[in-house]
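Next comes a single protein record:
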Amino acid sequence: MIPTIDLGPWLSGGAADRARLSATVDEALCTAGFLLVTGHGVDPGLRAAIREAARGFFLLPAAVKEPYAVRVGGRGWLGPGAEANGYAEGTATPPDLKESWSFAAEEPTGDPAVDVEWFLPNVWPAEAPELRPLVTEYAARMRGLCDRLLELLATALGGPGDLFTRHARHPTWGFNINWYPGTDVLGPPEPGQFRIGPHTDFGTVTVLDRQRGKGGLQVHTDEAGWQDAPWEPDALTVNIGDLMARWTGDRWRSGRHRVLPPPADAPAEELMSLVWFHECDPGTRVASLPAPVGRHAYEPVDSHAYLRAKLDAIGLG
């Protein structure tokens, strides 16, 4: 259902390798909207160091973290009860069982109206000073990787290589470090409560570095329903979001997913995910590609009006 692709042949292989990889990507995104990606070049040591630094912050008393509290879409700490992702698809659920630290794009465009909404400076916790250089390096790695992924997606659709990257020269992005503690921290789950409720992502491409766990990621397809997502130690999990699905006229699926609550047989399970949400330039007009690529013609949308509405939908309090 969800294949593993090696970016090595895409970056250095011949035409036949690229064609084979493109066909695999197209098939996978038509069904689940998810891929596992190896050969990405992102150092596992960097990912581990971010987790270690972030965990030190998350374990601090709530009173220390509270001054950094923000609403969804802000830059800082999202504490327990801050969001419920199920609301993005119209599903009322209890708050998600997690804490997050959120970073986002901060390089100004020069347009004051755009910059004050989408390119504000990040907030860095004084209690975890090592996060700043680590996250800065990770962001550079993710920006480069997402450009390569968008070029691969464009080729998989039979389009020019810059079909998407020409709309992502100064993109917005979000980076969440999600901490999923056990029931000893957040208490037992309520009925219908998840670490992250069922939803689809909002942007173009999401790149997820996750840990294996019983209370982990599940992916939904029409054919199989909810299934545990496959996991490989060094692979990154990649899925497309709503804007990309609209762009392709529903040829590709915005991958519906959720993160299970701590399991009854392992209530103290603790996981942490690094979630990179890649978007496009503010104000991009997203119009469905025509047939035979597109299968449904959506009304064009302003990318960031769409994103803002989704972010507002999942914020609580």
Summary: Residues 131-156 form the longest helix (26 residues). The two ends are 38 Å apart (CA to CA). Residues 104 and 174 are 4 Å apart (CA to CA).
